[in-house]
Amino acid sequence: MNKNELVTNISEKSGLTKKDVETVVNGLVDEITGALKEGQKVQFVGFGTFETRERSSRTGRNPQTGEEINIPASTVPAFRPGNKLKEAVK
Length: 90
Prior knowledge:
One of its GO terms (molecular function) is identical protein binding. The protein is of the alpha+beta class. The protein has two domains: 40 residues; 34 residues, no CATH class. Helix content is 43%, strand content 30%. It contains three helices and five strands, in the order H-H-E-E-E-E-E-H. The strands form two sheets. The chain has a three-stranded antiparallel beta sheet. Strand 3 and strand 4 form a beta hairpin. The two termini are 19 Å apart. 1% of the residues are buried.
């Protein structure tokens, strides 16, 4: 499912306009992104937690030349599903 399909489905189920639903979805994504940039966790009880994780530097290989390269440390976004989501997907 892509964003447009999500907006359409929520609009049909809630009776809200697609424009209103899209505004809410965009706002939700912006708020989660902003919180992660500040190093905060965003938790939806039962659904899951959005957080950032530190990835340490490591040595990799260039697949074309086989040459070793250094991959620098980085911060990456992560999602940890909640118990209710895990049970619903089983």
